Amino acid sequence: MRFADILRLCRQNLLRRKSRTVLTVLGVVVGCCSIVLMVSLGAGINEQNERMLESMGDLSIITVYAGGSGAGGGIDGKQTALDDKAVEEFRSIPQVAGVTPMASMPYTASLKTGGGDRYVVDYVQVMGIDTTQLDAMGYVLLEGRAPLRSGEVLLGEYTAYDFMDRFRAGEDSMRHHSRGSGGMCVFDESTGTCREAADDPDPFFDPLTTPLTLVAGPSFNGLLSSEGVMAGDAGAAGTPLETALTPVGILKEDYNKGGATSSGLILPLDDLKQLVRDADPSSARASAYDQALVKVTDMAQVGEVEDQIRALGFGTSSVRQMRESLEEQSRSIQLILGGLGAVSLLVAAIGIANTMIMSVTERTREIGIMKSLGCTVRDIRIMFLGEAGAIGFLGGVIGCVISAIASVAINLVSFASADVRGVVTAVIGGGEATRVSVIPWWLYLFAIAFSTAIGLLSGFQPANRAVRIPALDAIRNAT
Question: Which residues form the ABC3 transporter permease C-terminal domain (predicted)?
């Protein structure tokens, strides 16, 4: 018997009993939809976790502390100084792309600029890094260039918005923005959500064309915005040190590379050390650093590099632990949801088996005639398996189509938006919104293949039952 004839018989037999076939396929559709949608909800949770981690900044950064401090601590109580020698050891690790020490101003620091010191920041974070490692570390310059000479500094992305106008009162004394981690978002009554403003106001001045003055010292109280404190608070080190600075670039906000990338000053390490010595000559700054940042070439190697650094006696922290925990949690949720959906498909498998058993019983005479006409046992088995597999395949395809439509509908409802952008985001993702339901392309293929396999397995026993019926008995006993 030709394979084309077998397929034609399968189609005729399925269409002969349309109601039974439709109901059986419907059972597979329900089971397929259950699995796909349940797994898609778990994948949505995984996408939300990924977006959350991405919002935290560069995931390939490891923060290194002196031995015994920070997450992880040292090993065997070993205490190692975090100095230039240690930095060179980190750079010698093959998987490391860049390393920069980090130091901070140990005193209260403020900024002022403009005529009559009109614009001030009472408290500013001052961070020192190796500015020659900007590219290697993945720092992103939004504007300007890297410092090349002493006195040149970088600003955090939103540092210019920290300045207060001392000659204005109330809300007019500050300029607010809606972007970044410290932004003041705008409430949209139509959607009930908080969003970024379409056009934030500019800061009071252009930070790249306006020189700044840094005020710092051991006894400085930092209140430049108040009356009568411009000279500082005299103490052991006298009046605070005022240093002229020239901003030459603005860094993109990334908290994994230091909070100053959001709001603060970023100086070359040598300049920061000199500022500390000038502010208080009696206090010798130790050669060890507060911490160091290590950037790994591949995010998958963060754990391996972190273990090597800990073996040197340093404490480390990274998003590795959080990422692994979230991934494990996401996998568990997907398994649970997928298991719940599999129950529906199991019920559908029972329905396919029941349909095929009834089909064998009703077609006993037909089986006997086929055998008497020379049809082989293989042909009859393929015919029944083909009918069962076709039911599973059709149910899988229809179930995937319905699941795709349901997934888009779920996402549209969660976005509370029916505009073009909302539709595109609901289908393919992207943008800042995270989808509740995510169906990867391989899940469609798996669902169709699994449904077809369920159909074949469910039809295997009825097919074997059909081929075991003797031809003469089938014709004689058939009613």
Answer: 340-470
The structure's pTM equals 0.62
Residue spans of the domains in the chain: they are: 3-56+324-477, 60-101+291-317, 107-284
Q: Which CATH class is domain 60-101+291-317?
A: alpha beta
Going by C-alpha positions, the residue among 267, 275, 265, 134 that lies closest to residue 218 is 275
230-284, pLDDT tens digit by residue?
444 433 445 788 899 999 999 998 888 888 998 999 999 989 988 888 877 766 5
